[in-house]
Amino acid sequence: MAMTHGAAWGALVLRVLLGVILVMHGYEALVLLGPGDIARTLVRHGVPPTVVPLVVWYTIAVEIVGGALILVGLSTRLAAVLNVPIMLGVLLLVHGPQGFFMKGAITDAAAGRAAAVGYEFSLLVLACTIAVALIGPGPYSIDSRRHTPGRRR
Fold first, then answer.
1. Which residues have a Cβ under 8 Å from the Cβ of 6 and sit 6 or more positions away?
2. Could you give the CA distance from residue 12 to residue 101 in angstroms, rounded to a whole number?
3. Residue 140 is assigned to a structural domain of this protein
4. How far apart are CA 119 and CA 91, in angstroms?
5. What are φ and ψ of residue 21, in 5° steps?
6. For 114, which of 34, 59, 135, 148 is 20 to 30 Å away at the CA?
7. Whether the Cβ atoms of residue 123 and residue 91 lie closer than 8 Å to each other
8. Cα 108 from Cα 115, distance rounded (Å)
9. Contact yes or no for 147/21 (Cβ under 8 A)
10. Which pLDDT does position 153 carry in this prediction?
């Protein structure tokens, strides 16, 4: 069943913005905060220290590479599915206990650090990631161009 013109544009907007958000979060984890800060946060939220390095590097790689793939619409469903455990973990382990609404909170008074807490954004990104995994990349994507029946390669 083909998408309507409006649905095709909707899939494009959803896919591109989700890709940008994931890439930027991966960049934040790698460059702005650093893997060490992400690791300390995970340990604080109950992730066993023995698996923390794997979780940190999985998260960074899948958000950056997977986000870029989603952005351009290449291996879109796979990239989205690989991001689901990350978003589910962030939702349940980090932001879930903070309540629904996002608000600013002091995370380290001595260092003058604050962060947005609350799970509404994580829930939205998780829902968008699942939606992209289910509906696919849409017709305005590399995946669509590669799988068009009757197209010469």
1. none
2. 28
3. yes
4. 6
5. -60, -45
6. 59
7. yes
8. 9
9. no
10. 46
